[in-house]
Amino acid sequence: MNPNENKQSNLTYEELKMIAEYLQKNTKYRPAIGVICGTGLGDLINALQDPNTFPYETIPKFPVSTVKGHSGNLVFGLLSGQQVVCMQGRFHYYEGYSLNMVTTPIRVMHLLGVKTLIVTNAAGGINSSFKVGDVMILKDHISLLSLAGENPLRGSNEERFGERFPSMNNCYNKELRQLAKNTSNELNFSSFVQEGVYACVGGPSFETTAELNYLHRIGADAVGMSTVHEVIAAIHCGMKCLGISLITNAAIMSYDDDNVVCHNEVLEVGKKRSKDIETLVTHFVQKLK
Ligand code: HPA
Question: What is the pTM of this model?
């Protein structure tokens, strides 16, 4: 089979429903909270009690992740006593998937009953006050792909998920952001927790210095290659979202800076700070009760 074959073929409502029913038949969990574990943040799964793991390749019709450092499992379990479903590894546009395919798990989560989505990612820091290892709570996003017409909702609208023209105001829910900030203050994390705007690029090449300066000028504090598509699909089907970026590298804004960003650096920082993000998400989820 051509390995790209299922990367473009959008699933119908009935197929998505079939995936959700398959999962419900094989798990006792009925989660209202979904979590996407981004690059290097897959350890969050270790905090789950009584996990029930479905490797992506065992779920009928489900896409399969192809990136080094990204495991591919859908994991149900208890986090702070709450039922959750976590994506350990996500799908990226740069892997060749259509954005509709990238967001397939979000629609499945919706059909499973998920109402709140916590999305994490690794990102490059553009804001000069950000340090490597900082955690940024997303206040808003700039989707360069959406602005250019590449959107997970492009194509005929499935009314059973949501309306044709969904509003993106408050897409990173104000109350959830406040709750995350309160949680980080209580944990004494405020010295490394920031808030800002996440810009999404297609990747997989990292940005040029000129592109990073452009992103800075249009109001981005951090840049990455994920998250916004999932959030658009989640908002479309009525979920509330919280976004968390781990700043794994500083964007190279000057031609005099001879540093080079690389994927291993991103993974290394992810490993170092992932415990704190795990703690933040665990305490945050406890407050959602
Ligand atoms: N750019 C884009 N995506 C990223 C980066 C970056 O600098 N760091 C981690 N993901």
Answer: 0.95
